[in-house]
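re: that chain from earlier
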Amino acid sequence: MPESKSKFFIPAVGAAVVVVVAGSLAAYTYFKSPSAGSSDALGSAKLVPSTALMATYITTDPEAWAKLQQFGTPEAQKLVAKGLEDFNKQMFSDGNVSYEKDIKPWAGGVMIAVMPPNPVEPAQLNVPSGAPNVPANLQQKPNILIVVGIKDKLSALNFANKLKSEKGVKFQESDYQGQKIIETTQNGKSTYSVVLNNSHLILAPEKQAVEKAIDTFKGQSSFASKEGAGSILSKGVDVKNNLAQIYLPDYPGTVQQLAATSPQAKQLPAQTLTQLKQIKSVVAGVGVDDAGVRVKAIANLDPQLSKFQYQSTPGNIVGQLPIDTFALISGSGISRGWETVVEQSKDYPQMKQVLEQARSQLKFANIDLDKDIFGWMNGEFAFGAIPSNQGVLASVGFGGALVFDTSDRKTAEATFTKLDTLAKTQTINIANRNIGGKDVTEWQIPRQGALLAHGWLDQDTVFVALGGPIADAVSDRKNQSLDNSDTFKAVTGSLQKPNGGYFYLDMDKTKTMPLINSLISSSADTITILGSIRGFGVTVTSPDKSTSELEMLLALKPNTAK
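^ sequence. v structure.
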């Protein structure tokens, strides 16, 4: 939540609870009773208007969040603790209120819904009402609605009474549909809130959003009843120690409306809208288990529109890369993917033009882009980053290896012959050498060694190495392969199988962090947090033509603090 809004969030909570539940201690027994159904996503969604574009439900279950404490280096734990302390001070400037003591006992789950933006009046834009050509993207502003479950009315009452003495905060009450809306003003800015059914607190920076929530409470259609929302809300995503769930029941509609509110908003072309419609809805969940933080997302597809052709991979290609490979992308069927791109380019004039230009340029070298480059890449593939500080790789610290399984070795060999011939015309020396019993062809540059190398690892597997040392690492298998790495097993071993391949990053390698620091500018705090990450893994599966599932694991180091 933006800082400007965070300062108004809690006073609004207190004001609303004061109005609804304050009055008499004779109601003690009523307040002591729990609020049934106040802390689940479906219950909260029933109070969100059906016009909401998307919603995120965040649990306040202390056991789920406590699971995170088993991870992280001592330095990272201290950094997180300081961040929480600073956040608490930011939320409560007088220092008399803490989340742990005052809010945690009564606040249930929190749903944050993104509503369609409200039109901005000309006066708000500081533009004369008759001024022509007001940009459309300036006529809208973000609109959110927050639903907080109340799991303990008595604790909420105590907190509300404590906030009554908050300095610099003004409260104003109004009535809408028989419900009391509280306007909380601090530093000239307002937040609106109401408590519905004594079980949910509704908050928003815009009064209209709160009024629409009351209309929903009174019987108008809700986010829970929206087409596509019911099933994803009730099923959600199965993750252990669930921290948050994200719901997009109308994926194409949401993307369209959010794109329209962007400062650089442009009307989406018809071809893009067609692509968006391939995905009906998306639900994602974030949880914590013994391996780290896990994210799962499920996309419901339209099988009539979807061009995606999923194929699971056996994963054997990983065994062709050396154990010190610190980054990996693997999968299968590049040739099929290329065919899909070519087919879709027919609907995209710019893409088609780029493809035709690429084809024309390669024809001068007697190379057919479709057949000679992509046509034989019909098996598994892997792209790996491997550390090395020798030869041409000395300045960057790593090189790359591309490994392909193919059933068309003849075409692949012909392609590499054409590429070698083309390299010779660029004064590159083509040399052959034997590495670990394998014949390898190198493109050599004077005084720097091999720039590129290629060769066959077996009858069906060819590799291309960027840098001579990488060719040695891939060809001469003196050390173990990547699939025997403890980190690779820890990061990918719990991901769903069979799958379509992996994205893998080993953060625990001694050379990984220096490489990251050399590529991006990182603060000391960022480096501390990254030091708590063991690795990152992603995979995709597709059980049927109407479903695509993504799973990500942020593998964390165990907390070693005593």
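The mean pLDDT is 81.
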